[in-house]
UniProtKB/TrEMBL annotation:
Single Gene Ontology MF annotation: SNARE binding
Region described as Disordered: 361-380
A Gene Ontology cellular-component term: EARP complex
InterPro entries given in the database record: Syndetin_C, VPS50, VPS54_N
Signal peptide range in chain numbering: none
Chain coiled-coil ranges: 229-256
Domain Syndetin C-terminal: 516-750
Pfam families xref list: Syndetin_C, Vps54_N
Organism: Sphaeramia orbicularis (orbiculate cardinalfish)
GO biological process terms, semicolon-separated: endocytic recycling; protein transport; retrograde transport, endosome to Golgi
Gene: vps50
Top-level taxon: Eukaryota
Domain named Vacuolar protein sorting-associated protein 54 N-terminal: residues: 67-358
The protein, known as: VPS50 EARP/GARPII complex subunit
Amino acid sequence: MQFSVFGPFTVCVLSECLVQGHFLIPPWSLFAFDSLSPPLSLSLSLLEEMRELREQPIDPQAEQEIIDSIEEVYFSNDSFDMVQHELQKLPPELNLQELEEYRDKLKRQQAAVSKKVADLILEKQPAYVKELERVTALQTNLQLAAVICTNARRQLSVAKEGFTEASLGLLANQRRRQLLTGLLKSLRTIKTLQRTDVRLSEMLEEEDYPGAIQLCLECQKAASTFKHYSCISELNSKLQDTLEQIEEQLDVALSKTCKHFDVSHYTKVQLAYTLLGKTQTAMDQLHMHFTQAIHNTVFQVVLGYVELCAGNADTKFQKMQYKDLCTHITLDSYIPCLTDLCKALWEVMLSYHRTMQWHEEHDKEETAPPPAGSEEDNFVSRETIRSKKKSDYNLNKTNAPILTNTTLNVIRLVGKYMQMMNILKPIAFDVIHCVSQLFDYYLYAVYTFFGRNDLYESSGLGLISSRLRTTLNRIQESLIDMISPTPTPTPDHHQNEKVPSPHLSQLVVLTNSGTLYGLAQRVVATESLVFLAEQFESLQSHLDTMMPAAKKPFLQQFYSQTVSTASELRKPIYWIVAAKAIDYEQMLLMMAGVKWDIREIMSQHNVYVDVLLKEFEQFNKRLGDVSRHVRIPLPVSNVLWEHCIRLANRTLVEGYANVKKCSNEGRALMQLDFQQFLMKLEKLTDLRPIPDKEFVETYIKAYYLTENDMEQFIKNHREYSMKQLANLVNVCLGSHINKKARQKLLAAIDDIDRPKR
């Protein structure tokens, strides 16, 4: 084996690679003459030659000395040209003997390097073979893994297609099943609804009115659920007719209790009305039935005796009025007739007494705690009571208007007058004029009883508008006789007569603080008047058609100046309650005792704030007590709270205006007090925004104004009194401005106040 092409350096470098385990290139390629890979037989022959070289005996120390004698240049890089290097070393004159000696030296070096390389190659041969086997095994495993992955992907694709189609099919079938199940349930419900008529008839025959109403209401609810089916539309209207029929039979059953009261029968009737949510209607109908029962009973008794006494006289007694019929009773039949009349009335009164007793007992049951028993039973009973209370509240407390007998009588008279106008159209204007006087007198009476007070002007709240004041003055001048206690006819009898000023009954007490100064009576009177005005509003178009064209301005003036002012009476009437319900004077006295010229920022508000809030809590409690007897409508509640809050805020400003000395820390304390008041007040009322909140905040902030800003403030804020503005000048700017500037600001205040005088 020849290594003439390789220098010692190249062989050593390659051998070092083998020593470090670099087997990326087969060992036999180290001795190739080009980049082409030799056949496997060549590599085997190379290995044989290396083995022979390795087996040649040589001294290791001598071998190492030979390798160390190799020039360093042979170890430089792969581009080193060994032939050119050796040729350049030749002397100018060649000596054959020296050349042969040098050649032998190079051969020894080459042989030593070759043997060293052979030793290293043979030493690493087992690792190479093992690594080659591992690479071959790895290649085989990779080919097998590729086949497995290919098959797995193919099987996964097949499974995915099969599973998705099956799943979608299952979902579709499940959805179809749910739809069909729902449809079947709907069809069964519709079938049950179609058969309801028979059951309702049976329940009405059994006088099971609550059960019939409950069934009918449930059927109506179910019918509304399935109203998208065409077969349900007729059923829904039929159920409504059935419900109306039940109400008619219920009214007949209610009338039977007026003469023969039966506890179980009346309980069923009342429960039925409760289910309908018409307990108040039941009471109204019951009163009407008792009235009718009394009339029919006494009429039949008297009619029987009159016909018996008359004999064969052809007198149509049945068409007579009861009063006229009584005149035909003879002296002989008077005592027997009166006896029978008392017996008949006693039966009616007995039924009425038992009816009242039934209601009193049931009222006690509703307020009493549930009796000991099973928890379940104590629970359809609590729910039944709760449902009754809810029904009664919705009807009586929320929807029903607040009325007096006077309002009902006026409405009844207006109805009769309108019938008169339809028949006698030429006197339509005169009738409407009288109706307007009736309303005027009613409005004036309510104001006189509950709204007249001399403190309106001093409050500065504008409680009575100029329109309302004009209306009241007009009514007083044209309709009210302020001198004579009895009506005084005028010389012209065709003109309207003046009537005496109305007087409040002594039974009505408006000075008791426990009843909030007659708040219940004020609410009933005022809200019934407002209700009457609303009824007149609804009649305006009808009355307008009856009025002659020349008289229509009178009707328009009546509505614009009188009817529309009825709701404005709320402010002055309820202001009296608000002015007395809170002790504002006590708050002023407590504020006067507060020291405002402090030198430290306070973190605790003053005691007068807590006292004022306590007053509001008491007011809220008493308002709730009154509402248990008479419903307090939301507009009334809002007006009351608005008045109380406005008066409290204006009292705060008045208290701050009484301050003689105030520091910056004192002004901060004022803000702290007011913020504490607002925070606690908002928890007591839902009224938003808080009335006159800016009135107080603006006044407190005015303490920080300069002289020029104060002058502009005085001109822009005329809602404050002269005293309040003067206090700002004296306390706020007193120590910061000279006497001339102070006099100028006070003169500006006086100029603003002069027009008010």
